[in-house]
Amino acid sequence: GFMTLDLMMNYPDYFVAGVAIAEAKLDAFITDDQINVLKDQALFFIYSENDPVVVPANYEIPTIERLRTAGAVNLMVSSPDHVVDTSGLYTDVDGNPYPYNDHWSWIYFDNNESVDDVTGQDSWSWIAEQLN
Predict the structure, then answer these.
(1) Residue 55 CA: distances (Å) to CA of 13, 28, 122
(2) Which of 4, 12, 58, 132 is the most buried (most CB within 10 A)?
(3) Could you give phi then psi for residue 114, rounded to 5 degrees?
(4) How far is it, in rounded angstroms, from Cα 73 to Cα 98?
């Protein structure tokens, strides 16, 4: 996640899209000029609301708000509350889906279960659309 935004800021004409999973670039270190570069790019943020490692209130949430305020043209966000096993293979002692560390939001991306909070579009289909 940290490298995704840096690469998109520094090479805006090189990448078709960026997927920032548990994006770990502190918003305080992203300048307004960098937001203006990012707002014109296709970005899909994926993070858990309860990430204990990369706390969204310091990282993704303020950056996403700044991007929206700047008029981001193609911004998707998938922010589930928690990260749990969705395969049905792993459960806790009560039979509920096994709760993973909430930093592990890439599990949803890897399983194509990251969907935009507003449109419901999945990340992999979105990526494919950016290639056209």
Answers:
(1) 30, 13, 23
(2) 4
(3) -85, 120
(4) 36
For residue 24, the number of C-alpha atoms closer than 13 Å in the C-beta half-sphere is 11
With 0.90 as the threshold, say if the pTM is over it.
yes
> Over the range 5-18, which residues count as b (16 or more CB within 10 Å of their CB) and which as e?
beebbeeeeeeebb
The pLDDT of residue 2 is: 58
- Determine the Cα–Cα distance for residues 40 and 47; give it in Å rounded to an integer: 21
At residue 46, the pLDDT reads 98
Mean pLDDT, to the nearest integer, of 39-63?
97
Rounded Cα–Cα distance for residues 117 and 94 (Å):
29
Q: Is the pLDDT of residue 69 over 70?
A: yes
